[in-house]
Each structure stands twice: as C-alpha cells, then as structure tokens.
Write a structure and sequence with these properties.
- With about 120 residues, the chain is mainly alpha-helical.
- The protein has 2 domains: about 60 residues, lambda repressor-like DNA-binding domains (434 Repressor (Amino-terminal Domain), Orthogonal Bundle); about 35 residues.
- It is about 65% helix and about 0% strand.
- About 15% of the residues are buried.
- Keywords: DNA-binding.
- This is HTH-type transcriptional regulator, competence development regulator.
Length: about 120
Amino acid sequence: MPPGFGQYLRGLRQRRNLSQRQLGRLAGVSAAYISEVERGVRGVPSPKILEKLARPLRVEYNELMRQAGYLKIEQELPTFAPKVAERYIDVTDIPEGTIKAIEQIVEEIRKERRARQEKRDLQEE
C-alpha cells in the first residue's frame, strides 16, 4: 500500500466532517472497511471503491487513483472537470446540491444535442 494512503483517506473524510459511518453510507461501503483502510489493516481500495468514495469526499477520482498508486500523473484518465477546476475553481468547496444541479444541466445539454443529431440524421435519410 502506498505510504500513508489510510492517513490521506482519513484526512479527506475529516475535512468533510464525515464519520466513517456517514462516508460508508454515502459511498456504499461499510464503516468497518473504511476504518480498516484508514488504520492500514487493509490495502488500498480497488479502483471501483475509490470511484464510490470520490463524490462524498469531494475529490477527483484521478486524485484518489494517484494517491492509491494506481496512476502516475502522465497516466491520468482524461476528464474535463479537473482541468476546469485547476484553472477556475476549487471544486472541493462546491456544495453537493450544486454539483447535482450542474450535472443535471450537463445531462440536459447532452439530451438536446442527441435530439438535434437524430433530427439531422433523419433529414439526411
């Protein structure tokens, strides 16, 4: 396990003022599991578990993957949010409700684009 991953995870959780039980409930994992990772009893969580932990901890999935030793910076998974966040905002300070509202807006934009593309495709036939 990368040195200090459990301590890193504990620090993230505490900065969000979450108990192990609250984090477990939000991420869909047990509080006991989180406790064991934080204490170094268990190894680094799998990428799937890290993905579940990212949202409630308000940290980018790529960052968890790097801290866990799965990614080096040059192997970072391509995403848009980290680039925007690094340049313009600190996403860790955005309330969960705001994040959900933004995601809904983005989904609506995607739906509109798909509908326009389908309409163009029908017109071309």
